[in-house]
Design brief:
The complex is a heterotrimer of chains A (205), B (431) and C (311).
Chain A lengths: L22 E5 L1 H18 L6 E5 L4 H16 L4 E4 L31 E9 L3 H13 L4 E9 L11 E5 L7 E6 L8 E6 L8
Chain B lengths: L2 E11 L4 E10 L2 E6 L7 E5 L4 E4 L1 E6 L12 H10 L2 E6 L10 H14 L3 E6 L13 H7 L3 E3 L8 H11 L6 E3 L4 H4 L4 E2 L2 H6 L3 E2 L2 H17 L3 E3 L5 H12 L4 E5 L1 H5 L21 H13 L4 E2 L8 H4 L16 H10 L5 H8 L1 H7 L14 E11 L18 E11 L2 E5 L3 E2 L3
Parallel strand pairs in B: 1-4, 1-5, 6-7, 7-8, 8-9, 9-10, 10-13, 11-12, 13-14, 14-15
Antiparallel strand pairs in B: 1-2, 2-3, 5-16, 16-17, 17-18, 18-19
Helix pairs in contact in B: 1-2, 2-3, 4-7, 7-8, 8-10
Chain C lengths: L4 E2 L7 H19 L12 E6 L4 H13 L3 E5 L5 H4 L3 H10 L4 E6 L4 H8 L4 E6 L5 H15 L6 E5 L6 H12 L3 E5 L15 E3 L2 H5 L4 E4 L4 H4 L7 H8 L3 H4 L7 E3 L12 H5 L5 H19 L11
Parallel strand pairs in C: 1-5, 2-3, 2-4, 4-5, 6-7, 6-9, 7-8, 9-10
Helix pairs in contact in C: 1-6, 1-13, 2-13, 4-5, 6-7, 6-13
Classes of the chains: A alpha/beta (205), B alpha/beta (431), C alpha/beta (311).
Chain lengths: 205, 431, 311
């Protein structure tokens, strides 16, 4: 193990596991599309004041989902909902003494959050810690009127009292499994799919 | 005193140019016989198989720190470090406190050496009073008290007029004037050799020209006065060349180089370890090469350690504040054996530069293993591998750039005036 | 960067520098928020161990630490081990016993941060040691140039001033070269280090030649103690020959930017006009200093020293 190996270099993120491990697709591109359309309808149904919505995607996976939701809301209710990006890395509760510091992702909040109905969008919800961190981050930006949460996948194993308002699909998993939103070419562009992989499940989702 | 028989070693005698296997018999403090094979009854046997048997090493440049700085080293601990390193005699410099510029201090040093040092001690007295570089010392009185040479080492006599008179006057006693040649105004605050390394380190730099300018001056003054000039710790290619030319012109100049200047370059300072800070500083690879060639062709006559103990708390400070100097007595042998391993010198040539030549320069006995010579002998195992831990050494101090390193070659027995004073198994032996 | 911290640019790979710059860009965004504070280093202790006083750099590190919610402690020991008879080792060991999460060290003599890093379990960040390195300064310079120019590869950077005694110059030389820029130096011969070409730069004693076509003009601060008589005859001659003003700037590219590590000696290294107006980006450098230091603290603070395999 040299100083450059991923484990010891604080600047290189832990190498993603999963190449060559067994994985099954639990949501394909079509299923994701349908789920996002259904969620858009649910958002319209549950919110009286549609003029104050603010979609905030949690990187990386929540961002394309938030954008798709905005497009869906435009289609079904003629709304121009603002989309923001809110990285939660600096608010995590698990930045430990060992291992590398995770790379930071971009935050772009084009609007103020005061008095808005913020809809946080994440790809996979599990322990609830990411949503908790996202709320803490959000509070530093201002005082939203309300916060609602969208998760494309809820895989359970909640550790905090966090409620997901809109769920794409509930997928029971073992703790050790890893659940990821991805595209076959590695980016976050269509076609997307959600896969479950053996080993290396992250407990902070 | 009992007889000692050193058996089965490779005998290296600079006096007779002997390099051959044989036995050495010691009796009454003198070499009694050197033959292919000797039988002796009632003799303590030292088995020297696989080892070299040579005259005891002589270090003509050591700092024993006594009187005045006994917390770093004293004549006893320095003497023990010496014999553990294979040295049977050391010449100690005058920059003590009080300075050895008066016969009473010389007497004190010799007295303490008799009491406490297993190695012979030859005091070098100061060239100027208080090392001030102004008024010369009473050279006649000092030689009578036992001084073997004169030096302001540690400092340089910057006033050329004073240096000239010191050299002239030294003719009265025919003792060498040993110079630490560094032009202080060119050194400035420099602490490492000026070059790419000092640029990378961002430390004040000491240019090699500071040494060559001063050596040039001293050589010209030596030529003018006819004195015996000896240049201490030569470190630059420029100085080596100037000395070579002076010798070719017939000047009576001699020179020494330290083990560190013969083997380490300024790159050793890249970690800011103050145990790589010396004066003069470690120099470039070109300079080290030139010093080696000088040692081989005889321009540089002797290897001398410049053993300079400093306390741990004195060295563990920022680089510019640390006093320069490193230990040398217990590591010199394995370090310079690299020159033999690298085929720059034969074993006999190396031994000559560690024994006969320093003895000749100081005008003392030594460097001979022939019958009748004083029995100052060292048995060296040139292959023995060991890890040097300064905390386990005999010196009171720990400042060595070789700390923790595996070294190859070691003295396994040291005999002074016919008495075994050190062996590897038992260490320094009680008197 | 190694487990020991950030001691200099010389030890960094280009990829390490990229990571720091990217992280700093994220921290710039935090600096644009209303609430410029994130909880990331809450409960962590950062010690500013400044043997050499420096209000600017120290304040910058302090703000950086506080924006990350860390507890920042300022410790200003006597400037030399000699005056207080405490060795560097003693200081380091005492500090280590209090288990800080990061130690920022500044000293007038090269090599002290490294010696302290050797003894501490906590990571050490070099805030400037002697004439050796000032890595966070070089990193904020890189960030500022990238912000202005969109890139660093292929740019020509001219550094002017007392390079021989400047840790900023050394760190900048390493940093800009590693990121693909060409570096030129302009200084009187007495202020150029010996064998400076070994650093991979071209040196000039003519400012005009050095600045010709430059994208970035970086003026170093002149320390007056060095000037008068010793390395240079007078302030007047220095500013006439090596000071940068709009007239001389015309030899550089039209869109060249002017930088300075600060504080500026107005009328000496830079004209009054350039010190305060575009194209000088000095205030951006200061702003980016906080972002860089936040990035470095984020990446290092609280991480235990990695044991070296060879030990």
């Amino acid at each position: 193990m040299t100083n450059d190996s991923p484990r010891t270099n604080p600047l290189q993120p832990d190498q993603a596991q999963g190449s060559g491990t067994a994985c099954r697709v639990v949501l394909d591109d079509l299923a994701i599309s349908r789920a996002l359309m259904r969620i858009a309808h649910e958002i319209v149904e549950r919110n009286d004041d549609l003029g104050n919505l603010y979609l905030v995607g949690v990187p990386n996976g929540g961002v394309p989902l938030a954008r798709q939701l905005a497009a869906n809301l435009h289609d079904i209710a003629d709304l121009d909902v603002v989309v923001g990006i809110l990285d939660t890395t600096l608010y995590r509760d698990d930045l430990t003494s060992s291992g590398s510091r995770p790379p930071l992702r971009r935050t772009e909040m084009p609007s103020a959050v005061d008095d808005r109905v913020v809809i946080l969008v994440d790809d996979v919800a599990s322990t609830g810690r990411t949503i908790r961190a996202a709320m803490d981050a959000l509070m530093d930006f201002g005082r939203p009127r309300a916060v609602q949460v969208v998760a494309l996948v809820d895989r359970g194993h909640r550790e905090l009292p966090i409620k997901i308002d809109y769920v794409g699909k509930n997928i029971p998993t073992k703790r050790a499994e890893l659940v990821k939103l991805r595209a076959s070419n590695g980016s976050y562009q269509r076609p997307l799919e959600v896969v479950v992989m053996e080993e290396g499940g992250r407990a902070d989702e | 005193m009992g007889r000692i028989l050193i058996r089965g070693g490779r005998i290296l005698d600079p006096a007779t140019d002997r390099d051959a296997p044989g036995d050495v018999l010691i009796e009454d403090g003198r070499i009694a016989a050197v033959e292919n094979s000797i039988e002796a009854v009632d003799a303590e046997i030292i088995n020297a198989e696989g080892c070299w048997v040579a005259p005891g090493l002589i270090d003509m440049h050591t700092h024993l720190r006594e009187p005045g700085q006994e917390y770093k080293e004293d004549i006893g601990s320095g003497g023990r470090a010496a014999v553990a390193g294979g040295f049977t005699a050391v010449a100690c410099m005058a920059n003590t406190n009080p300075v050895n510029d008066d016969p009473s201090v010389t007497d004190y040093i010799l007295d303490r050496a008799r009491q406490d040092s297993p190695a012979k001690v030859y005091p070098i007295a100061a060239a100027t009073k208080g090392l001030s570089g102004e008024v010369m010392t009473e050279m006649v009185g000092l030689v009578e008290a036992g001084a073997v040479g004169f030096s302001d080492d540690g400092k340089t006599i910057m006033d050329s007029g004073v240096q000239r008179r010191v050299l002239q006057y030294s003719r009265l006693v025919e003792a060498p004037v040993i110079v630490h040649a560094e032009d202080r105004t060119l050194v400035g605050k420099g602490v490492v050799n000026e070059g790419p390394v000092s640029t990378r380190l961002g430390l004040p730099a000491n240019p090699s020209v500071a040494e060559t300018v001063q050596v040039a001056r001293d050589l010209m003054l030596a030529e003018l006065t006819g004195a015996h000039l000896h240049v201490a710790h030569v470190s630059t290619a420029g100085a080596v060349e100037l000395i070579r030319q002076a010798r070719n012109r017939g000047l009576q100049v001699t020179a020494e180089a330290t083990p560190h200047h013969l083997t380490l370059t300024d790159e050793a300072t890249l970690g800011f370890d103050t145990n790589t800070k010396m004066a003069p500083p470690l120099r470039s690879a070109t300079d080290v090469e030139a010093c080696r060639r000088g040692l081989v062709d005889g321009t540089i006559d002797a290897i001398a350690t410049d053993h300079a103990p400093h306390a741990v708390h004195e060295k563990e400070v920022e680089f510019t504040a640390a006093p320069p100097g490193v230990l040398g007595l217990e590591t010199a042998l394995p370090v310079v054996l690299d020159l033999v391993r690298g085929e720059h010198l034969t074993p006999l040539q190396l031994i000559r530069r560690l024994t006969a030549n320093p003895a000749r320069i100081l005008g003392q006995e030594g460097g001979r293993l022939d019958t009748g010579s004083p029995a100052d002998v060292v048995v060296i195992d040139p292959e023995r591998s060991w890890i040097y831990d300064p905390y386990k050494g005999y010196s009171k101090s720990r400042n060595s750039p070789w700390a923790g390193q595996t070294l190859q070659g070691r003295a396994v027995a040291t005999i002074v005036a016919g008495r075994l004073v050190y062996d590897l198994d038992r260490g320094v032996l009680a008197p | 960067m190694m487990g020991r911290g950030l001691l200099g640019i010389e030890d960094l790979e280009r990829s390490d520098i990229e990571t720091i710059l990217e992280t700093a860009e994220r921290m710039q965004e935090v600096g644009r928020r209303d609430v410029k504070k994130v909880p990331t280093l809450r409960g962590r202790t950062i010690v500013n161990l400044f043997f050499e006083p420096s209000t600017r750099t120290r304040t910058s590190f302090e703000i950086a630490g506080k924006r990350l919610s860390a507890d920042v402690v300022n410790f200003t020991p006597a400037s030399s081990s000699l005056t207080k008879h405490e060795t560097i080792l003693d200081t380091a060991k005492n500090l280590d016993a209090m288990a800080p999460d990061a130690v920022v060290v500044r000293h007038a003599v090269s090599g002290v941060p490294k010696r302290i890093a050797d003894e501490l379990g906590a990571p050490v960040i070099n805030a400037g040691d002697g004439a050796h390195e000032h890595p966070t300064q070089a990193l904020l310079d890189l960030l500022t140039v990238r912000e202005e120019k969109g890139r660093i590869d292929g740019l020509t950077v001219t550094i002017i001033g007392d390079v021989a005694h400047s840790r900023v110059a050394r760190s900048d030389i390493y940093a800009f070269r590693k990121m693909g820029a060409e570096v030129r130096l302009a200084a009187p011969p007495t202020m150029l280090p010996v064998d400076v070409e070994s650093l991979g730069v071209k040196s000039f004693t003519s400012l005009r030649e050095a600045i010709d076509g430059a994208d970035v003009v970086m003026a170093l601060r002149i320390q007056f103690e060095r000037l008068t008589g010793a390395l240079f005859p007078s302030v007047r001659e220095y500013s006439a020959t090596f000071g940068v003003d709009r007239a001389k700037l015309r030899y550089a590219k039209d869109d060249a930017i002017v930088m300075h590590p600060g504080p500026v000696n107005r009328g000496v290294e830079l004209s009054h006009d350039l010190a305060d107006h575009r194209p000088s980006v000095i205030l951006d450098q200061v702003r980016n200093g906080v972002a860089i230091r936040m990035a470095v603290l984020y990446l290092l603070a609280g991480r235990r020293k990695v044991e070296r395999e060879e030990e």
